[in-house]
């Protein structure tokens, strides 16, 4: 028992060291992260905190223009801050003029300041979760430090969920810490730190994946090897949590994502439902226990329907609106009667350029190749879930084939969860089990022993 608690303390220390290192690195770029959409979320948050729409817009403009004056070079990996193209005064004047113009042309209501026409701003009105999350940070620490601290909390929360996901799937402590470090070092960490809704959506997505892993276990582990001796540590919690906790995380995570970025919630839920349904079919065909997987698929499918129906009933912009937004330059030109032919042309143009970009800078292809190796060499409940998360990222980018996002990561960021969750598994010894899903221990006399591997058991290595 003392040895187990010592290892738990070492794991906690490792987790904290990674978090502190990440925070220290990002202290070099407290500001300078604002994108054109940041002012929309910030003005929404300031309006929620009680400021008038006009004052909220003025402060959001001041922050956005001041942020744009910082140098484009940064020691923080993966940041692509654009080179300054105008002075702060010119930026403020341009945005003030834009607000005045759209106020005169009908944009007189809503929580966000009138930076554009009302139809375009409705996209941000339909994402109240992120502005609401920002309110206490901005109120307590001001705009600059409040946005930075909110991003830090989001990034660290997502990284801890990745660590817990790997530990809940019986990965070793070193694999869990590697997953946490990868999440923070790759574009997932940078996107989480940027003052946009994508980071919070990503963190909630990692909680949903964690919930799926827990949901696939018929009961929590309580054996000594799992490290549930009551001491601190991510492994102890991951081993002790069970299906009820998993169902709560899946439902709560997707419900929260609905208010943060409902389109990504819809795609993630649908991708998870599809992947789990295919997996359950494969298990059934091979005469293995498939009930927990089918149960998880049913939950994700039900939540997919709920997200879609909820967005429709609230009148939030849907897929057709997104296509018109792209093709009419944010609704500043007349709608196309049938946007889909031109939209699919844009798809071809975007993905051709994206593939050329990956060939010129093959970091993601290399990481995906390592992920494929992990898929072939390891058996883990995490892998099909990681594939589903990656598919959700590809689908999200496919819904926005904008060449302006070619060098960015935020729309496709869920794809990076595949290497984050898969590559750390290569640090563990290959499992000899015939199925990636865990089996229940069977009763023998007064105790328990492991039975035939079905849907609830994995060899715990490196515990």
Automatic annotation (TrEMBL):
Highest taxon listed in the record's lineage: Bacteria
Keyword Membrane: yes
Entry's transmembrane regions: 137-163, 175-193, 199-216, 237-259, 265-284, 296-316, 359-376, 381-400, 406-427
Keywords: Membrane, Transmembrane, Transmembrane helix
Region ranges (Disordered): 433-463
The name this protein goes by in its record: Uncharacterized protein
Species this chain originates from: Streptomyces globisporus C-1027
